[in-house]
Structure formats: C-alpha cells, structure tokens
Task: structure prediction
Amino acid sequence: MRPAREFALPGHAVIGVDGLDAPVFLQSQCMNDVNALTPGAWQYNGWLNPQGRVLALFYLARLASGAYLMILPAGDPAALIDSLRRFVFRAKVRLQHIEEWHVCGEIAGDGTARPDVLSEDADRHHLNIPGQRWQRTLHVSTRRFAPDADAAEVWHALDMAIGWPWLHAEQLGRWTPQMLGLQRLSAFSLKKGCYPGQEIVARTHYLGKSKRDLFTVRGTGLRAGQLLHAGAQEAGTVVDAAAGGDWGVAVLPAPMEAAAELSNQAGRVDVVAIEIC
Result:
C-alpha cells in the first residue's frame, strides 16, 4: 500500500440537493432512510425503478446547513438529475451538478476502524469510509487533486471488496439491492415506508426469494457485463471489475460454493474471498 496522500477519483461526481422540501423529496425517492440522517452524517444509498432495480448508487450526506450531497462513484450525474426532476412536481427542491466540487480519496495505513462520519471545513467535506484494515477518507473539495491511476485503482478495489460496486450505464436497471448484497452495507431500508421499488424489495426480503447475491471472482479478462458460465449453462454476470481484469464482483446464484467451476471466454473463473478492506 502506498503512503497516505490525496488523489483524484475519476468518474466521481457531486450533486447538490437543497430547498425547503429536499428532505421529504429524498425520503420519498431514495431506498435508504433519509430521515435517519442527522446533520454531519452520511449513508450508502441509491435510487430504484418501480421494479426494484437499481438505477443509481451514491453516498448521501446531510450537511450542517441542511442541504444534501449526493456523491456518485460512477454514472452520469446529468442523466440522474433529469430523471429525478420528473418527480419534483411542485416541491421546493433544487438538484444541481456541482462541477466546481471535485472528489478525491485518501488511504491511510493499517489501523483501527473509524466511525462513518462527515466533517466539514470552509471549502471541503470529508467522509470517513468504514473499514477494518484501512482508513479511507473521501474528500469533496473545490480544490483539484492530482490523478494517480494506481491509487485510484486501489480505492476501486477496496470499494468492490466491501461490496460497493461502481455501476456504469450498462448495469443500471438490472439488479435488485439484494442481488448486489447491499444489505451488508445497510444501504436500503425495509421500514421507512414507500419509495420506488419498495414493495419488490420488501417482498424479496420477507419471502426470502432472492436467489442471487454478489460474490468476488478472480480470473482473466473480467469486465463489467460479462457473462460467466458453469459448464454450458449461464451462471451469472460480472458487475464490476478491476482495470486489469484479474478480479471483480459478480452476481451469481446463492449459495455459491467457492469450488464452483465457472468460466468466461478467457478460461477458468474462481469464487474467492479477498480480504483487503
């Protein structure tokens, strides 16, 4: 692991949400319990379609001012804003892509886990990312930070290792929160009341009908959207993968044995447990 320092996180975007009705609007649209956010707190969150499939994943932070930050690890912020605006109607809510705010990461050395809190400076917001082995902080700042492809890839790997995949356009609208294992991050709520897809999410949970889950896989030439096979049968799909294509995360039947014989076009793919977070 390289020394701790700040580096740009390409592909991450910041959406600001404010206005008198912002809390009610976000509570009615987001899959997690926005009302549970106190000023200075953040949560994993997302937006679903009526069929309970994920259209966006993001960190949602509530600032001391009462405004919110929606931080997308991947995806098109303009497209998400346009889609959400269709549900604003007459509510007093403003959504804007804050292009002058930039997202960077910082990875500290081995140490004890820190609480997942948000802190604010005059021109910067800091989100502590929970982890057992590495201390990570996501910064939202008006300052630009130097790119570092190696460090950004380590950050991506750590996100995948905790079950936080980066969803690009071709992956949107395909997976339920349970298929992505997002219950492990407490990224959606079963008790908050109505939101798009809530009935599907609740039924899947209470009836135990989710037969697929997110697994870590290792192989060659892995890429998002790639089909994995067990013999001649289609077994699952790679959701996100490291830049080198040697490992990633995939939605597969649950339970999935570690010894399962999976393959892609390049050869064998193994279900593994990578403990790097």
Summary: The helical segments are 22-29, 77-85, 149-161, 198-207. The chain has a mean pLDDT of 90. The two ends are 12 Å apart (CA to CA).
